[in-house]
Amino acid sequence: MTTARTAIVIGSGIAGPVTALALHRAGIIATVYEAYPATASGVGGTLALAPNGVAALRTVGADEAVTAIATPIERSAMAVGRRHIDLPTLAGVPPLRVVHRAELHRVLHDRAVAEGVPFEYGKRLVDAEQTDSGVTARFEDGSTATADILVGADGIRSRVRGLIDPAAPGPRFTGLLSFEAVARHEVDVEPGTMTFAFGRRGYYLYWPEPGGGTRWGANLPQQRPMSFVEARAVPAAQWLDTLRTSYGDDDPGRELMATSHADELQVAGSLQIMPPVPHWYRGRMVLVGDSAHAPSNSSGQGASLAIESAVQLARCLRDLPDVETAFAAYVRLRRARVEKVAARAARINHAKAPGPVARTLMPLLIPLMVRTVMDPEKTVADEQRYVIDWDAPVTTEPALR
């Protein structure tokens, strides 16, 4: 094990609590520092947890609590116009789980607190100073904290990433705006079915909501990026009018938008992704989750990869003799995997806003694609069947595959 015995974890989203839990299991005491004054409460829409993400949660004892609040997605379909095509499923893996982001935050926070992990709120990181023996975080309120290592789990706009490498790239706009709500309209599909629909003017997806109604998410093409704050400044009723116009020619898009309420509309702003980050660590500071790798939501893997990285970082610190060696092994274990997922998701993004010619051809091409390039054994098997062996020792040499 490294000489690291204490850790500062910046960010209490998804990666932060899981990192603290995994470090705790590895024998390292971690405290989580969050810039906002309290835990998330009703903020954000739903996200997907892939089977590999749930498997990683099992390592820190959070899988059962998370699956209890999640909706299983047993099957999926694609719709272009009036044509619906069932998509093949990957055999031998548990279902995808969709869960409300705020509920996931709460469960992970409560699990970490139960394990003795402290959380400090209202602690916005402004700087960090490293020495040979430790790192000191400086917060906007004038307070400081010192530990052996500092972990940046502070998301796509990471402050820690900039401290590690001032020249690090920032997030990139995908060209899509994101919205979500629950419609009163009931779609005629089996519960547990997620449908990916290509409307005349935009992409959307939907599934039956347990308890009634249909939950939907929409990605509208947009020329100019818009931050979360900017998007929220536009009245929700105005956004809903835009969505009703955009999906007015689609079935069931028209009914979904018509039976949704403006006061329940989740407006997420422009979808963003992280390009490859050259440096994941420097000295005693290291990145996990979206601060290092944030693929498009098209991947269905963003949260799951963040959870995996938290667990793998803890394994490396548990087994290797010094911080530098542990961080290098962590990057070796993670970089190729997350960048492969990001590349797959980027290809999907290009298909979310097809032009008129492509849209005309899609009903003809999709059945062929389902049998060939959309075969889950070829596209997502390595992603979803991935299980971290917590008990296996990490070495300085790449593992044989």
UniProtKB/TrEMBL annotation:
- One Pfam family name from the record? FAD_binding_3
Tell me the InterPro entries matching this sequence.
Answer: FAD-bd, FAD-dep_Monooxygenase_BioMet, FAD/NAD-bd_sf
Task: Domain (FAD-binding): give its ranges.
Answer: 7-344
Q: Which UniProt keywords are listed? A: Monooxygenase, Oxidoreductase
State one molecular function term (GO).
Answer: FAD binding
Instruction: Give the protein name, as stated in the record.
Output: 2-polyprenyl-6-methoxyphenol hydroxylase-like FAD-dependent oxidoreductase
What is the native source organism of this protein? Micromonospora parathelypteridis
